Amino acid sequence: xxxxxxxxxxxxxxxxxxxxxxxxxxxxxxxxxxxxxxxxxxxxxxxxxxxxxxxxxxxxxxxxxxxxxxxxxxxxxxxxxxxxxxxxxxxxxxxxxxxxxxxxxxxxxxxxxxxxxxxxxxxxxxxxxxxxxxxxxxxxxxxxxxxxxxxxxxxxxxxxxxxxxxxxxxxxxxxxxxxxxxxxxxxxxxxxxxxxxxxxxxxxxxxxxxxxxxxxxxxxxxxxxxxxxxxxxxxxxxxxxxxxxxxxxxxxxxxxxxxxxxxxxxxxxxxxxxxxxxxxxxxxxxxxxxxxxxxxxxxxxxxxxxxxxxxxxxxxxxxxxxxxxxxxxxxxxxxxxxxxxxxxxxxxxxxxxxxxxxxxxxxxxxxxxxxxxxxxxxxxxxxxxxxxxxxxxxxxxxxxxxxxxxxxxxxxxxxxxxxxxxxxxxxxxxxxxxxxxxxxxxxxxxxxxxxxxxxxxxxxxxxxx
Length: 465
Prior knowledge:
By secondary structure, this protein is an all-beta fold. It has helices at residues 31-34, 273-276, and strands at 62-65, 100-103, 106-107, 117-122, 129-132, 140-142, 146-156, 158-161, 172-175, 179-184, 187-189, 199-205, 212-218, 221-225, 237-242, 246-252, 255-259, 264-266, 281-286, 289-291, 298-300, 304-309, 312-314, 327-332, 339-341, 344-348, 350-355, 368-371, 374-378, 393-398, 404-407, 410-414, 416-420, 427-430, 433-435, 441-445, 462-464.
């Protein structure tokens, strides 16, 4: 996977300070263990078998596709080989379990024609179908939307680059009941919008009321989708968009930058018990990084059981239109059981921001947690906030519903550590540490009725705006 050389960000933590670190996170060898995150499915951890050597004739079960090879053809070539390649990717309906599809060069269409490139096969847990995209060290390139077909498929090292030519189309469409796919070390970039609709580089969900799930996206790079410096906020182009009828999704070790929206956004209906029946659920975003996006790196709207764990989010666009207090991570509309744990947030106007535009019932907003996070360099250089809606808060809870636990977080160089408005209820805080709050306040309340300061950190410096 091509790695982008990132800007060196200046962090203004004062080296002379002696920190009192918060209590350690729960015990466990990995972040999955510590927070009881379901393990990535074992079938997706398998490696492809060794390629034929020598590969001088067709070998059943091993497909070789290089459209740019001179003489490439599908005529009388079921499998192909180096020097006698297939012209097109095999029809997924005809690819059996245990097959290996080796891709080289640039791929623009499937032999049968479609609104995108069909890729896949019918694997099993013990014999997945493998797609090998880095034969001889150069990732295979796709210039149209990839539409996976089949199940138990592992895809390694492909580059989906739409080159800004396919309006509103995602790089990768994981929809309508697709199950058990894994993408590792892939790159998705350059989707385009003509300004008439929202989209994502990777779209996960369903339009036909069937659940899409057990999807793994690991060590992928998703970037430069739309214009992250656009002057209008009329269009959102997220790195990964997870919507209705999506369940059991793992996003691990991925990098998101220069997207005209969030790095990852989870959203679905949640306002009533009936609508919660098809709200996205069990979404695990672990050890990812989001930076220099138009909107927060990681964001959850209506959802159930979403976890952002061990993620790093920073340098969200400061002047993003329509959102003057852009945060590193956040949520909206009362997600249920949202956990933000062991994350680092910095160089943004707000660290974590939770907001609710209206009142909800039927359990929305219950069980949310921000724990063991490091939040620093927030709103430094901004004017001191005079209300909770302003920039400068490590955590800003605005009109939240349900319950929010804020435990064992470490705040350094923020204007104010935690800000709460009078509409927020069910707030529980403990074990947080505050160092060098530039206003001198650990907590800022939008109203004295929020809660007495003694219910929070003993001796915390509190102001009421």
